[in-house]
Every structure is written in structure tokens, then in C-alpha cells.
Amino acid sequence: MASRIVILAGGRIIADGSPLQLMEAVSSTAEVRWKQDGHHHVHASQDATSFVRELLSRAGDAVTDLEISRTTLEDAYLSIVEQFEQGETVTVTDFEEAAR
Q1: Phi, psi for 88 (deg, rounded to 5)
Q2: What pairs with residue 40 in β-bridges?
Q3: Do 35 and 65 have their domain in common?
Q4: Per the structure, how many domains does the chain have?
Q5: DSSP states of the chain
Q6: Does residue 53 share a domain with residue 33?
Q7: CA torsion 65→78→76→74, rounded to 10°?
């Protein structure tokens, strides 16, 4: 995967950043889904790793069908272009190339 992505629209650069920066510009929240004791659960979390660790330490083997979903690069691209087309400002952290 590329370390830098530039999104063009309307003949100009509307976003420039790493894949992670572009995805986080759209959403930094992950959705955690699981099944426990026959019930389905959904939780939105800024820190899915910590949430899942806590969940598993409390519920252990009772947790099944665990899924963690985050914004994809495709979702980020479509959202950024849609924001631009609606006249909204697109804010993505500036990309700084590492020294070689």
C-alpha cells in the first residue's frame, strides 16, 4: 500500500495524507460487535483494542462472533469527495515525508 495518497477533485488537491490519516479524518471510531449468552451487542469505541481486552477479561469464553469494523480507505475516499462536492472543508493532517 502507498505511504501517501493524494485525492484530486475539481482539478485541485482536496486531501493529502497517509492511508491512516485519510481514514481517521473521516472517522476514528471502530464498531465492535459480538454475541454473548445468545444476545447480540454493538459498541462504538475510539480504542477498540482496549475495549475488547476488557470485554474478554470480563466475559471470556462467553463472547462469540467477535467482529471489529473500521472505516476503510474506500469509505474515506468517498466521504472526502462527497464533502468536497457539498462545499465542505476537508481537513486531513498534512503529510510529512520521512527523511531518507
Answers
A1: -80, 155
A2: 35
A3: yes
A4: 2
A5: --S-EEEEETTEEEEEE-HHHHHHHH---EEEEEEETTEEEEEEES-HHHHHHHHHHHHGGGEEEEEEE---HHHHHHHHHHHHHTTPPP--PPP-PPP-
A6: yes
A7: 60
Q: Are residues 34 and 65 in the same domain?
A: yes
- Evaluated on CA atoms 48, 51, 57, 58, the torsion sign reads negative
Is the CB of residue 84 less than 8 Å from the CB of residue 90?
A: yes
The angle, 0 to 180 degrees and rounded to 10, between the axes of the packed helices 19-26 and 73-85 is: 60
Cell of 1: 500500500
pLDDT at 1: 73
Q: Is the pLDDT of residue 66 over 80?
A: yes
The pTM score is 0.66
Same domain, 65 and 81: no
Alpha carbons 41 and 59: distance in angstroms, whole number:
13
